[in-house]
């Protein structure tokens, strides 16, 4: 038996979580280094996965399969396709930065404060989330995926509710109340989504008799598994609902701004750049593969919802006074683009959507982490409290600008490629939708540039006049992300090469071919 | 006088006697119950003859040995094949020895053993007058607040009678799911109910509330028993027999020989339907299903917490076992009549339990309503009427009972000056004062909520899967919705424990003896093992899924 590489990528952070939690309370710094070490080792393993993966080979590679719960028809089955590889790599890449950026986020507060923040717990929970997210990207058994899809809510919930910003404009008590409100809202939304999916998972078992993605997809393809149209639609809706809450799609998005606003910046990045990707990923992998006909049936409605997400998220981002809420609404807008790309059912659209998941992860991480550094300096999340920062902290302002430009998809930065692909894919089949979605880009320029202008330019406010520039640790976090944004913006081929074959296969599952170019059709 | 005449005298005298066969009792197959009953009687003798100082240890010894021995007997019977191939009806048709019976008996015995440890805990309260005290009243007969009570406390009395009472209740519970005729069922019902009524009244603290709980439980329980008995009488009138098998045959219409004395009533469907309704009503009362659930919150709250934990776990196991046997053995032919009713009961039980639980402010009442909601989930599995349905219910019961005992054991630890601090507001910030206890309780709550990787999820998945396969998809949807509602209040407790500021005058967590630690440890271990690797136990429940007829 070969080395179970995929299990190892998930097991390593899990072991790291336990080890970090077990470090004695006094050895705070040791726990941090341990967590960082484990996350870097996971990154190395994920890189190995990416190298060992052969884009031209089988659909699912590095597969593992073991019996698990026979009575439920559940097997422990792992395997990655190109999309999975890209997202596993993204997750493993971002976690070390998240840990580094949150280095002091869980330090005990100065004496006199009653807030309680177990440092070890913070880093252990981050690693636990990483383990579960990676497993859900790798699971090719629906039940196995479901288990980690649900279970990751618990550590996430404690991260949101247990660790907030250092300061809050209305005092500590108000902050605690709002934090726990945000955490509960996050959990309830996702739990309800998950439970509805549970009903659909059970329904799938009743119809199919097992949970193996490959087996079900094959049985569907060669006609041995016949699903009644209505059954398929109900099951699709059950799955899609859970993923749309997670992703999040309008109108199920309202938990995200609360959760991102109340959590620390690294945790906010963890939510939007890592955990939420499970939702969009699962749409590609499970909704389209298991229920191709129902996916096509639901496409018009989903596209409309996606476009509403794009425009609505962008409009609300323009109106925000709170930096973190602004990034949250911008993310909702971006998730709209990703879902649009997936359900445009063209190869450009879906390649773009996958690429978008990766790029959005990196660009949001860059923007949000720098915003976190900014907020921790001033102790306020309100845009109005800043002004003229670029004069006192030019490096901070510069990286913030790059993160912002990436968010508005400036050509030359990575998100441009993916957004362009998504729009091309959407135009090819649904021109009207594509046109409306394009307005999202215009609004994105508005909210990022206005944000930059209000916080960084203008006269230096007295409160920010003594603001220090980025420290070494913070530079170590930001610089690689900026480099990646530029690199992937100029040369996205490494990612697209891995992703494209998987997208082709997914499209063939739904029996969709790319529409021919108009000119050719006219001949 | 000839010898022949003497002989004939002998034979005439002996003749009628030889016609009445001595009942043939398979002592070996009934040994689990017999061991427990025997130990309970020894326990009574211990109360009478052993000096007061030594009673606690003597009773502990007898009870632990008896429960362990009875469990060993169950395992031996199961290993011998009585659960599957050699399943049979013993004791002249009164008791079934088959897979479900043995599985449930094993579960009840283990739950009782763990529950016993919480009964025997004597380190939580500060010592009174130099003697350790447990959760039970010093002298049950003394009026609360009276001089005689004070005298009893000063003398350091303890109510060691709880051990034989527990054993008697266990004995009744062992027979209840195995009963194969209606009279045995009723006797078993009374045998386990009466000790429980008494146990409920024995709390050391808040004695009036405890006695009130006992009176409520007794009155409503007596009502329910009366219903059951009336139902049994009607069914006898319908079938001319109290044996499950015979009634089933009459329901199916395969019995022709009408008892002349009952010629007018036999086969009368009105008797069958009303009788069934009343019998099932009595069982649903014990299960705590809506609308027969009214006693649950009051009794759970008032009873001494170790008793609550034991009762919540073991009674539910026994009662669901009996309900399964009644529905699957007597009434499969009546399936189309009882299924719609049970659908309704399951739906209102799931939703009712979950919704009312949201408004609760007392942790014990909260867990009571949660147990009602869980009864609804289990009913969804009962309704499946497939072998999968039976085994999923068995698995759920096993998983649920250990979570319940563990959760109530944690409740006994959180105390302030007035004893257990059960009001939810007092639990605020518990996670900060004692992270370990709060984390353990959070694990139990997550299991109740059915979060993956806990036993609660595996159980819930099993019953919902069985229900969906049995054609009850709408029940699954309702179950999922009420799970979501239920998740809200479990999460609320977690929020309270971890994210709220502790109160300055808040409760402290008592350091328990190894007894309660064992109970909680077993609860956590079972919760995680059944959540991560349930296959072995699903197999076990799967093999035990067939009733002998």
TrEMBL record, chain B:
Chief location category: membrane
GO biological process: ATP synthesis coupled electron transport
Residue stretches making up the NADH:quinone oxidoreductase/Mrp antiporter transmembrane domain: 179-485
One Gene Ontology cellular component: plasma membrane
Protein localization: Cell membrane; Endomembrane system; Membrane
Recorded topology in the membrane: Multi-pass membrane protein
MF GO annotations: NADH dehydrogenase (quinone) (non-electrogenic) activity; NADH dehydrogenase (ubiquinone) activity; quinone binding
Transmembrane spans: 30-50, 57-79, 99-120, 162-179, 185-203, 215-239, 270-295, 307-328, 340-359, 366-387, 393-414, 435-455, 475-499, 511-533
Protein's UniProt keywords contain Translocase: yes
EC number of this enzyme: 7.1.1.-
EC class: translocase
Keywords: Cell membrane, Membrane, NAD, Quinone, Translocase, Transmembrane, Transmembrane helix, Transport
Reactions catalysed, as given in the entry: a quinone + NADH + 5 H(+)(in) = a quinol + NAD(+) + 4 H(+)(out)
Record keyword Transmembrane helix present: yes
Superkingdom: Bacteria
Assembly notes: NDH-1 is composed of 14 different subunits. Subunits NuoA, H, J, K, L, M, N constitute the membrane sector of the complex.
Function comment: NDH-1 shuttles electrons from NADH, via FMN and iron-sulfur (Fe-S) centers, to quinones in the respiratory chain. The immediate electron acceptor for the enzyme in this species is believed to be a menaquinone. Couples the redox reaction to proton translocation (for every two electrons transferred, four hydrogen ions are translocated across the cytoplasmic membrane), and thus conserves the redox energy in a proton gradient.
Protein family (similarity comment): Belongs to the complex I subunit 2 family.
Full protein name: NADH-quinone oxidoreductase subunit N
């Amino acid at each position: 038996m070969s080395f179970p590489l995929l299990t190892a990528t998930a097991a390593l952070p899990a072991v790291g979580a336990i080890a970090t939690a077990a470090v004695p309370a006094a050895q705070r710094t040791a726990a941090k280094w341990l967590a960082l070490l484990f996350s870097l080792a996971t990154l190395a393993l994920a890189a190995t996965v990416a190298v060992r993966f052969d884009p031209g080979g089988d659909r699912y590679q590095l597969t593992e399969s073991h019996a698990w719960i026979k009575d439920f028809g559940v097997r422990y089955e792992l395997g990655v396709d190109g999309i999975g590889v890209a997202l596993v790599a993204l997750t493993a890449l971002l976690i070390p930065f998240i840990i580094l950026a949150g280095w002091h986020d869980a330090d005990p507060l100065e004496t006199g404060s009653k807030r309680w923040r177990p440092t070890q717990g913070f880093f252990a929970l981050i690693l636990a989330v990483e383990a579960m997210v990676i497993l859900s990207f790798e699971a090719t058994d629906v039940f196995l995926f479901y288990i980690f899809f649900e279970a990751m809510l618990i550590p996430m919930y404690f991260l949101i509710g247990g660790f907030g910003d250092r300061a809050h404009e209305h005092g500590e008590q108000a902050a605690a109340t709002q934090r726990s409100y945000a955490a509960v809202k996050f959990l309830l939304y996702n739990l309800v989504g998950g439970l509805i999916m549970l009903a659909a998972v059970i329904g799938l078992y009743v119809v199919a008799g097992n949970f193996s993605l490959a087996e079900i997809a094959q049985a569907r393809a060669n006609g041995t598994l016949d699903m009644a149209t209505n059954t398929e639609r109900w099951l699709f809706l059950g799955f899609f609902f859970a993923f749309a809450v997670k992703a999040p799609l309008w109108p199920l998005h309202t938990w995200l701004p609360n959760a991102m606003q109340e959590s620390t910046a690294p945790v906010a990045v963890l939510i939007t750049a890592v955990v939420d990707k499970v939702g969009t990923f699962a749409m590609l992998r499970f909704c389209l593969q298991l229920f191709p006909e129902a996916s096509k049936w639901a496409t018009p409605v989903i596209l409309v919802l996606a476009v509403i997400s794009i425009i609505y998220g962008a409009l609300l981002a323009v109106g925000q006074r709170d930096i973190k809420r602004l990034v949250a609404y911008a993310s909702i807008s971006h998730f709209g683009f990703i879902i649009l790309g997936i359900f445009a059912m063209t190869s450009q659209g879906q390649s773009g959507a996958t690429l978008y998941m990766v790029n959005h992860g990196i660009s949001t991480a860059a923007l949000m982490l720098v915003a976190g550094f900014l907020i921790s300096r001033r102790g306020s999340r309100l845009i109005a409290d800043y002004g003229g920062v670029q004069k006192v902290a030019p490096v901070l302002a510069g990286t913030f600008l790059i993160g912002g430009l990436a968010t508005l998809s400036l050509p030359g930065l990575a998100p441009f490629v993916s957004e362009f692909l998504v729009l091309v894919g959407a135009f090819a089949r649904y021109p009207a939708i594509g046109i409306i979605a394009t307005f999202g880009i215009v609004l994105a320029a508005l909210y990022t540039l206005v944000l930059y202008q209000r916080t960084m330019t203008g006269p230096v406010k007295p409160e920010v006049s003594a603001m220090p520039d980025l420290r070494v640790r913070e530079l170590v976090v930001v610089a690689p992300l900026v480099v990646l944004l530029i690199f992937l913006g100029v040369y996205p081929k490494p990612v697209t090469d891995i992703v494209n074959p998987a997208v082709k296969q997914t499209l063939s599952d739904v029996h969709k071919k790319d529409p021919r170019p108009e000119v050719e059709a006219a001949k | 006088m000839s010898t022949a005449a003497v002989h004939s005298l002998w034979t005439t005298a002996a003749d009628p006697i030889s016609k009445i066969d001595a009942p043939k009792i398979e002592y070996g197959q009934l040994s689990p119950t017999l061991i427990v009953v025997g130990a309970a009687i020894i326990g009574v003798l211990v109360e009478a003859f052993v000096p007061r100082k030594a009673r606690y240890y003597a009773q502990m010894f007898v009870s632990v040995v008896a429960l362990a021995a009875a469990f060993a007997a169950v395992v031996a019977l199961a290993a011998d094949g009585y659960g599957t191939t050699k399943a049979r009806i013993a004791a002249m048709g009164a008791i079934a020895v088959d897979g479900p019976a043995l599985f449930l008996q094993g579960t009840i015995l283990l739950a009782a053993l763990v529950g016993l440890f919480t009964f025997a805990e004597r380190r939580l309260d500060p010592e009174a007058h130099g003697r350790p005290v447990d959760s039970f009243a010093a002298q049950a007969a003394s009026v609360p607040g009276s001089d005689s009570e004070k005298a009893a406390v000063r003398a350091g009395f303890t109510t060691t009678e709880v051990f034989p009472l527990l054993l008697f209740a266990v004995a009744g519970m062992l027979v209840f799911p195995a009963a194969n005729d209606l009279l045995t069922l009723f006797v078993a019902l009374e045998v386990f109910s009466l000790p429980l009524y008494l146990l409920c009244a024995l709390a050391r603290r808040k004695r009036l509330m405890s006695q009130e709980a006992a009176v409520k439980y007794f009155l409503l329980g007596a009502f329910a028993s009366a219903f059951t008995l009336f139902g049994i009488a009607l069914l006898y009138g319908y079938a001319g027999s109290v044996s499950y098998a015979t009634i089933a045959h009459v329901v199916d219409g395969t019995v022709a020989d009408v008892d002349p004395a009952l010629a007018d009533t036999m086969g009368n469907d009105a008797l069958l339907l009303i009788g069934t309704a009343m019998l099932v009503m009595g069982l649903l009362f014990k299960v705590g299903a809506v609308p027969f659930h009214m006693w649950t919150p009051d009794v759970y709250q008032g009873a001494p917490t170790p008793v609550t934990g034991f009762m919540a776990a073991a009674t539910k196991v026994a009662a669901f076992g009996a309900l399964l046997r009644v529905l699957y053995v007597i009434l499969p032919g009546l399936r189309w009549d009882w299924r719609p009713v049970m659908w309704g009961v399951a739906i209102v039980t799931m939703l009712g339990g979950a919704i009312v639980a949201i408004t609760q402010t007392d942790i014990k009442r909260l867990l009571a309503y949660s147990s009602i909601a869980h009864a609804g989930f289990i009913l969804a599995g009962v309704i499946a009427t497939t072998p999968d349905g039976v085994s999923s219910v068995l698995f759920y019961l096993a998983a649920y009972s250990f979570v319940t005992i563990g959760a109530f054991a944690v409740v006994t630890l959180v105390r302030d000056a007035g004893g257990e601090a059960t009001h939810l507001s007092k639990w605020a910030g518990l996670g900060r004062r004692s992270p370990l206890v709060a984390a353990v309780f959070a694990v139990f709550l997550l299991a109740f909520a059915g979060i993956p990787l806990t036993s609660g999820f595996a159980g819930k998945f099993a019953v919902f899967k069985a229900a969906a396969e049995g054609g009850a998809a709408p029940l699954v949807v309702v179950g999922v919705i009420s799970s979501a509602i239920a998740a809200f209040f479990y999460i609320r407790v977690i929020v309270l424990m971890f994210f709220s500021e502790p109160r300055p005058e808040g409760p402290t967590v008592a350091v328990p003896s190894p007894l309660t630690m064992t109970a909680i440890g077993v609860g956590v271990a079972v919760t995680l093992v059944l959540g991560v690797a349930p296959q072995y136990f699903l197999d076990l429940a799967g093999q035990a899924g067939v009733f002998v007829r």
